[in-house]
Amino acid sequence: MGPAVKLVAEWSAAALEIAGVAIIVIMAFAATASALVDALRRRGWQEIFRVYRLELSRGILLGLEFLVGADIIHTVAVDLTFYSVGVLTVVVLIRTFLSFTLEFEISGRWPWQRGTTPPSGAS
Q1: pTM of the entire predicted model
Q2: Would you give the end-to-end CA distance of the chain in angstroms?
Q3: What pLDDT does residue 115 have?
């Protein structure tokens, strides 16, 4: 692969990594500020905690998607070795597991259950 393509890939991966981290940090600050405002309005602590976790989960989930994209670009376009592909596989598996569990936290359903109705008696 040419040096220009590698350079563009490196910069693209770095930009996605920065965006992923920035999204997580910004969403954490926004969720915290929102929770503090709700606390000052004397809302119920259980509801504040539920909404806070939901907002944090959404930020982490979106940030993880950017970070996975950065890892894929870096591995495929910059550092394509068996070792880097192995590391990428492990990282993607871990982040996919985190994404699934965060999706469950947010929606109460696994990603493959979208569009299905909850079982009777479930809330």
Answers
A1: 0.75
A2: 54
A3: 64
